[in-house]
Amino acid sequence: MNKRTFLAAACSAIATAALPAANAYAQADYPDKPIRVIMPWAAGGPTDVVGRVIAVQMGEILGQPLVIETRAGASGTIGTAQVAKAPADGYTLLMNPSVQGIYPAQFKNLSFDPIKDFRMVGVLGTVPMVAVVPPDSKFKTFGDLIKQGQAQPGSLTFASPGVATLPHLAGELINTSTKAKITHVGYRGSSPALTDVAGGHVDLMYAPLAPALPLIQSGKIRPIAVTTKARLAELPDVPTIAESVLPGFDIVTWYGMWAPKDTPQPIIAKLNKVMIEASKSPKVVEALKSQGTMPSAMSYQEAEAFNLAESERWIKVMQDAGIQPE
C-alpha cells in the first residue's frame, strides 16, 4: 500500500468511527433549529386547530418553534408523501388524523406506505362522537333507531363528513355489528352534514363532539347515544352505544404526529415526552376542551400499537362494507 492510499484509508476509518459520536451529539443537541410540521389539510380544520395548540406549547418547551406548513390536497396524501420522503432527522414531522392508517384501503396507488414509512411520535388527542338525530325525530333511543334499521333495511339514512372518514366508518361498523341497514350519505365536511340532520333531511349522524355540541345545546339536533365506553361529562344523561346496543363498543376519532421511518429513537422519545408535557398545560387542556378533544398521554410505543390496531380495525370495516379503493 503506498503512502497516499494508506492516508486515504486512515482518514476514511477515522471519519466512519466518528459518525456515531457525531450522530449522538446531534441527537443530544436536538432541536437546534425550527421544526417543520406538515399539515396535509386545509388551515382552520380540526386537525390544524388541535395540532397547532399543542405544537405551539411544544415549541415553548423545546426552545425551538414547531412551524406548521399547510400542504393540502388528495385527502391528505400530498403532504403525507412529502414527509415520507423527508430526511429522518426530526426536523420534518407530519400532523394527520386517524385517516393515516386507512389510506391503504382508500387508494389503490400510493407513493408511500402509511405504516412502514413512518414512526409515530404520539397521539395529539382523541375526540368522542355522538349519535345525533333531528330535534323532532320519532326515535327517543338509539336502540329504537337500530330496530327500524334492522326491520326495514334502507328506510333510514346517516350522514358523514365524507367517504372513509371515521364518522362514516363508525356507521358502517354499527350496521355490520347490528345487522341493520342504514344508508350512508356523504357530505364535504361536518358542517353541511349537521345542517342536513338539523333540517331533517337525514335521520342520523355520528358526529364529532366539537361541532355537534353547540347545535345540541341550542336544540337544533338531539343526541341519543355516544360512541365512547363511558358517558361524557358534557352529556351525562346521554347513554353510550355500549349501554344501548353493543356491549364493549368504544370508538373515537383522533389526531396524531408522525416522523419519517428512520428518525432516531432518542428524537422520537424526546418529542413524545414534550408532547405529553405540552398536553398537560392548563391553557392547552382548556383549548382542547373547546374542541371536544381529550389530551393523550400515550408513549410513542403505545401510540404505535394503537395506530396499527386502528388501521387493521377500520380497513376490515371498509372491506366488510364493500368500500372499494379509488
Could you tell me the radius of gyration in angstroms? 23 Å
**Biggest sheet strand line-up:** 2-1-3-10-4-11
Total beta strand runs: 11
Looking at the structure, the CATH topology of the largest domain is: D-Maltodextrin-Binding Protein, domain 2
- Whole-number tally of structural domains: 2
* Termini Cα gap: 60 Å
Inertia-based shape = globular
Mean pLDDT: 91
Fraction of residues in β-strands: 15-25%
Can you summarize the main beta sheet? 6 strands, mixed
Pfam families: TctC
Protein name: Tripartite tricarboxylate transporter family receptor
Signal peptide: 1-26
Keywords: Signal
Describe this protein's structure.
Strand 1, helix 2 and strand 2 (66-70) form a beta-alpha-beta unit. The longest helix has 26 residues, at 3-28. The chain has two domains: 35-126 and 253-321, D-Maltodextrin-Binding Protein, domain 2; 129-243, Periplasmic binding protein-like II (D-Maltodextrin-Binding Protein, domain 2, 3-Layer(aba) Sandwich). Helix 2 (46-62) packs across helix 10 and helix 6 (166-178) crosses helix 12. It is 44% helix and 19% strand. It contains twelve helices and eleven strands. It has helices spanning 3-28, 46-62, 77-84, 103-106, 142-151, 166-178, 190-198, 209-217, 241-244, 265-279, 282-290, 300-320, and strands spanning 35-39, 66-70, 92-97, 118-127, 129-133, 156-160, 182-186, 204-208, 222-226, 253-260, 294-295. The protein has a six-stranded mixed sheet with strand order 2-1-3-10-4-11, sandwiched between helices. Strands 7-6-8-5-9 form a five-stranded mixed sheet, with helices on both faces. By secondary structure, the protein is α/β, with parallel strands linked by helices. Residues 1-26 form the signal peptide. Belongs to the UPF0065 (bug) family. This is Tripartite tricarboxylate transporter family receptor.
